[in-house]
Amino acid sequence: MTGGSRPLGFSWPVLVGLAALAAPRVVLHDLDLVQEGSPVNALLVFGPPICWLAVVLWRRPPRPFLTMVVIGAIYGLFLAAGHQLLWTGAYDGNGPALGGNLADVDPTVQEVVLRAVAVLSSLATGIIVGILTGAVAAVLCRVLPEHGAPSRHGGP
């Protein structure tokens, strides 16, 4: 598929759906139901981007790198929303606090600042995942033949 009127190659609901594949890890991690370094965590970390790659290689959008960056950015929004919604549960009611000279700042102000930083961090994480996955997708789309395309080597 060349994308036609869709420069990203997919409709917005499909892009959101692909990004949502990564959302379960946010919930399971924030509620401490899955541990760092476990096989389940690895599946939740690497499975969604691998699925994104598979779909992009299958559909061949006109701009695979941009498509992946957009999926990553949407994932970042899911990540930010999940962290904000699960903030109290993730910290058992004792959220993080600023230290040093900032420890005397009003706790409500501290929470607003820390939550804002968490949102920015989540968005950056999603975009970085999109950039890295997009770079891989762009390379693979160039070197791997499209499914159903004739081989460049003259074989069947």
TrEMBL record:
Presence of the UniProt keyword Transmembrane helix in the record: yes
The answer to whether keyword Transmembrane applies is: yes
Q: Which UniProt keywords apply?
A: Membrane, Transmembrane, Transmembrane helix
Name the residues that span the membrane: 38-58, 65-86, 116-144
List the protein's name: Uncharacterized protein
Name its species.
Answer: Micromonospora sonneratiae
